[in-house]
Amino acid sequence: QAYLSYSNIAALTHLASKPGWDITKTLDNVRIWTHEEGAVLSFKVEMQVKVPSHVAFSLLSDFSLRQHWDRHFLTCKLLQAVSEEEKIYHVTSAPLTGHQPRDFVVLVSQRQPCRPQEPYTVAVRSVTLRMVPPSPEFCRSEILCAGFQIHSNSSSSCTVCYFNQVTSGVMPYLAANLTGSSKSIEDTALECIKFLE
C-alpha cells in the first residue's frame, strides 16, 4: 500500500512536469492543454479559483463531493479509508449513448505541500480490490493517472490543475470534446469552479 500510494503521487507529479503541453482552448478562467506521447493522450485543465488553496484542497480531496460538480460521476462510495491520506472509492459513471455504464475502483492519495512553493496534490489511480469484483452491469474501466495539483496564488485565490492520462476507458467521454464538438470538459471545469467558490 505504501508503494501504491507513493507511485500514485509520483506518477501525477511526473505527468505534471512533462514538457510539451499544447494549449487547445482558453476561456476567461479556464485553460485546456493536451499532451501526446505515442498512443497516450493526456490533458490538463487549469482553473483560476477565488478561494484559498487549502479550501480547494479539502473540497477536491473528498471524492464523495465530486458528484456535486462532475456529472460523469453517477455514484461514489467510500470502500476503505486506508489512512488519513489514502482512501479507496468505487465510482460509477453515467452511460454514454451506445455504451454500457462504467465503473472504477480508485485509490485517492492526498498530500499537503512540504515547502511553500509546492502544490497541494490529490492523485487518483485504479486499483484492484477483491471485495469489489467486476460486475456484469458495468464495464470495469481503468484510470492510469489522474488528479489535481493546487497552487496558491494569494491568500484568497489559487490555480487548480486537473490532469488525466487518457485510456480507452475514458476516451469516449473525451473524443467529442477534444475535437471541439462537445463542451463537456469546459462545462465540468466551470461547474468545479462554481462549486469551489
From TrEMBL:
SUPFAM superfamilies recorded: Bet v1-like
Gene3D superfamilies per the UniProt record, alphabetical: 3.30.530.20
GO CC term (a single one) = cytoplasm
Molecular function GO terms recorded: lipid binding
Annotated InterPro entries: START-like_dom_sf, START_lipid-bd_dom, START_lipid_transfer
Boundaries of each START domain copy? Answer: 16-166
The name under which this protein is listed is: ACO12 thioesterase
What organism does the UniProt record list as the source? Zosterops hypoxanthus
